[in-house]
Amino acid sequence: MDFALHPTENQRVALREALAPGGSVDVERRIQGGLGCTMDVLRVAEPGRTPNRMILRRYDPWYAEHKPRAAEIEFAVLGHLQRHGVPAAEPVWVDRQSTFETPAMVIGFLSGEVQKQPDDPMDYAAQLARMLARLHDVPRAGLPADLTDYNAVEVALLSAEAPPDSMTLHPLGTQLWECQRREHGRVELEKGVFLHGDYWPGNTLWQGQDLVAVVDFEEVGVGDPALDVAIAAVNLKLEPWPEASDHFVSVYRAETGRALETLRFWEMKELRRPMPDIARWLPSFQHFHARADIRADQIRKEHVRLIEEILE
Description:
Elements: H1 9-19, E1 24-31, E2 37-45, E3 52-59, H2 61-66, H3 70-83, E4 91-94, E5 104-108, H4 121-136, E6 148-149, H5 150-158, H6 165-168, H7 173-184, E7 193-195, E8 204-207, E9 210-214, E10 221-223, H8 226-236, H9 243-256, H10 263-272, H11 282-288, H12 296-311
Parallel strand pairs: 6-10
Antiparallel strand pairs: 1-2, 2-3, 3-5, 4-5, 7-10, 8-9
Helix pairs in contact: 4-9, 7-10, 8-9, 8-10, 10-12
């Protein structure tokens, strides 16, 4: 996402006062590929100390209207993860003075890259599964009370008289909505587990073949852990090695002992999420997936294929 202008002089002054009084803060580069936030790498130089890098994270304007506490919540969640030994960015500063036009925060810089070409896709999937199991073990006590309840949001949507416009505009959207409603009637959602909310390979960092950190907690919430599993499983099916998806699910089951009876239910939710047109996610797919040359027509076709498979 690249919606935000570069920080103004006044904003850079405010950052300098917060991060390096008497020193300097410069924008080094912009990180490309994300959809929810604009992220700029900062070079922060405090007097008498070696300069270091941090990341200015500014949320899409949608958050200012719908989730104005998004930065505050992510800031608190990152602190909670640090205290429980989860490899995630250090929270440094959160914008409580409306320095920026949308929710904003500064986090520590993490070394690593998105892994696009794993040597062993099965080991890659297994590491993703074990990290997710670790996330789902994070205790609720100490987290913000107003985290998104994904179970409640989903039940409310499926209880409506008609599907949302985003689904009716897709040729298979109404069928998928009706199928998910039927699925909801036969399963029971697990409650209260800490969720990443957008756990897919593009939100992980690797050093070589080793998974070293999880990033981008703007969609954090609580609810059924099968939701996070479904997000990763669906995205893995769109990689050149879709068999890694089943292995990911298998390793997660073994690590946690969860049967994941609601997995199909949440996979429908994940397939609904990019509607009406998954091509709007194309820049992110091209940046983070192994298939950097994938085209809009290809990703649309594969999205339809996965929907048709789950409808069967």
